[in-house]
Amino acid sequence: MLDRPLISLADTDTAEDRAAERTRLLALEAEYCSFGDTVHYTETPKIFDRCEGSFIYDDDGQAFLDLQMWYSAVNFGYANPRLNEAMVRQLNRLPQVASQYLHREKIELAADIAMGAQERFGRKGRVHFNVGGAQAVEDSLKLVRNASAGKSLMFAFEGGYHGRTLGASAITSSYRYRRRFGHFGDRAQFIEFPYHFRGPRGMSKEEYGLHCVKQFERLFESEYNGVWDPKAGKCEYAAFYVEPIQGTGGYIIPPMNFFPELKRVLDKHGILLVVDEIQMGFYRTGKLWSIEHFGVEPDVLVFGKALTNGLNPLSGIWAREELINPTVFPPGSTHSTFNANPLGTAVALEAMKMMREEDFATSVKDKGAYFLAGIQALKAKHAIVGDVDGLGLALRIEICEPHDSYTPAKALVDRMVDEALLGDLVYGGERFGLILDIGGYYKNVITLAPALTISHGEIDMALALLDQLFLRVAPR
Ligand SMILES: Cc1ncc(COP(=O)(O)O)c(C=O)c1O
Fold first, then answer.
1. Residue 316 Cβ contacting ligand 1 at under 6 Å
2. HSE value, Cβ hemisphere, 13 Å, CA-based, for 450
């Protein structure tokens, strides 16, 4: 088995050969791979073989239009030639160097991100790299605990997701991710997020945003609400962790007045604002950082995923100087063998350059508006679509029971995802599949994160395929 050359499954001769190879691999997987990741959320895991642009292909060469792009890690399209070339250039020059030494790409990337943040937020800061989003979240936890003289308590949102390491899952709202493992650190206090579609009836989106802030602010009215010592003027909590647009929570876009109001309360009580841009950063919403839509300045910003277009697990934090200067965050405060690795930083540097050269602010806004208009038309046609919304190319379709277009219909969405993976939807006389992702408080939201490079033609195709899918699964 091990001396067999690694070839593309699609190159194996016949459909029978490919089916036999698939069976062999799945049997090995069932025997030797841990089931602890998310592969076995589905009963029949799918094997993919190659990818390009907005499409990913299975071992039979069947094309799937990807509407989730590796959970928004591949913003610039699969196998992006420019980014692949940057990777190859680095591979041929300096692919490896221990993280205690310097290389040009790390320095330039940190400077690029920090100078950009200074332009946007008016504050000098520094960048620290790590691998993977959750690890960067861990670093941010160290940073804010250190800056607040060891306070270990955090606020975070209901519906928030920050990763699955022990520290990150303590500030992630789902108990499901903690249940088996007990508590290593303090879990966050989870605060209501203005999820308007499921909020109280009779309130506008803006009124509901203000209502949520008021509820939070109430905690500081008296020492008996458990978070604030009015005599000392001190809060027991170090920071508030936010996703400006909730990702795993179901691509929920709060009203524009929400974060400015929240920030006012945080500033008043000395609570740091940590903005998690891991999923919504890098122009997913039409701005480099999604928090820019709200005109609010973060104290710490966390990023990952699309920084390298998913070519390399590189993540990081930006923090304002007071929190991360070498006196308060000295050498050795945190370390990973692979942090700031040269392959990742080289690709990220090229991706940042691309983001400056191309007008993603305009193209993502335009394509997002076009896609949103299309899913609004689908909502008008299909009673199973309860709510649609979008900011840039972060779009949501909330699937509900058709009798009221409101009761969450999780089983229906699960079926949709499975049916989409059959690869037998039809567009222009050809068969296609769809790659969809599910999120939301009730796991009934299709969260759409197409490539930012998706064409208008591919958006038309996505809409036609979704239309077919909705017709196929809708109860009659
Ligand atoms: C907002 C947010 N934070 C943190 C993470 C964790 O990142 P990773 O999966 O790279 O550890 C994710 C991943 O989906 C995310 O969406």
1. no
2. 31
Q: Predicted confidence band at 44 (pLDDT cuts at 50, 70, 90)?
A: confident
Q: Which amino acid residue places its CA nearest to atom 7 of ligand 1?
A: 133
Within 328-400, where are the H helices?
342-357, 360-381
40/322 Cα distance (integer angstroms): 44
162 lines ligand 1 (CB under 6 A): yes
**Phi/psi zone of residue 186: left (φ > 0), alpha (ψ -120 to 50 degrees), beta?**
beta
Domains of the chain in sequence order: 46-79+360-473 (3.90.1150.10), 85-357 (3.40.640.10)
Spatial neighbors of 44 by CB under 8 A, at least 6 apart, are: none
Residue 448, H or E segment: strand 445-448
Q: For residue 227, give the nearest of 174, 170, 155 by alpha carbon.
A: 155
Cβ of 134 less than 6 Å from ligand 1: yes
- Mean pLDDT, the chain, rounded, equals 96
Q: Is 279 in the pocket of ligand 1 (CB under 6 A)?
A: yes
Number of the ligand 1 atom closest to the C-alpha atom of 243 = 1
Strand extents, DSSP E, 271-362: 272-276, 300-303, 315-320
**Is it the case that residue 8 has pLDDT exceeding 70?**
no
Measured distance CA(269)–CA(227) in Å, rounded: 10
Q: pLDDT for 168-213, tens place per residue?
A: 999 999 999 999 998 787 999 999 999 999 999 999 999 999 999 9
Q: What is the pLDDT of residue 2?
A: 46
Q: What's the pLDDT tens digit per position in 257-314?
A: 999 999 999 999 999 999 999 999 999 999 999 999 999 999 999 999 999 999 999 9
Q: Which pLDDT band, with edges at 50, 70 and 90, does 43 fall under?
A: confident
Both tokens of 212, joined, read 């949520």
pTM for the model? 0.97
pLDDT at 4 over 80: no
Would you state the pLDDT for residue 291? 98
Give 363 Cα–ligand 1 centroid separation in angstroms.
25
DSSP-based three-state secondary structure for 114? helix
Q: Return d(Cα 79, Cα 451) in angstroms, integer.
A: 12
Query: Rounded to the nearest 5 degrees, what angle is found at the Cα of 42, between the Cα atoms of 383 and 442?
Result: 45
- Residue 22 in 3-state DSSP? helix
Q: What are phi and psi of 316, to 5 degrees?
A: 180, 175
Looking at the chain, how many residues does it have? 476
Question: In Å, how far from its chain's centre is CA 460?
Answer: 24
Amino acid at residue number 153: L
